Backbone:
């Protein structure tokens, strides 16, 4: 037997990042951007539907008389305020993810160009 050292043949482009694929990260950032707007639209529709339900449940009652009852205030918080802030939170987090990924890719691109 011969003791030959076999070197693996890997095509490495020196301009490409080693630990990640820029195209994949760009796809993730773009997907997060689109998903954030879809989530925002869905939560706006949920809140709008709940406002419509509130108008139907009120049966002509004025808003001031409606909020005097504890059950009506609880319904408003659970069906109007909570979905609204949940949707805003998801939107901000997903927009932040895509902005951070875009910024990191831009920094990496600019530092590689300087060499």
Residues:
């Amino acid at each position: 037997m011969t003791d030959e050292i076999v070197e693996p043949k890997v095509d490495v482009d020196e301009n490409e990042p080693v630990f990640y694929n820029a195209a994949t990260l760009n796809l993730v950032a773009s997907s997060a951007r689109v998903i954030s707007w879809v989530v925002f639209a869905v939560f706006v529709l949920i809140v709008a539907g709940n406002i419509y339900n509130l108008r139907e449940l009120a049966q002509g009652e004025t808003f001031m008389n409606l909020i005097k009852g504890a059950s009506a205030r609880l319904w408003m918080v659970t069906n109007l305020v909570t979905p609204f802030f949940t949707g805003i939170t998801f939107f901000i987090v997903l927009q932040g993810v895509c902005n951070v990924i875009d910024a990191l890719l831009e920094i990496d691109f600019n530092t590689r160009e300087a060499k």
User: Anything to note?
Assistant: Helices lie at 22-58, 63-66, 70-114.
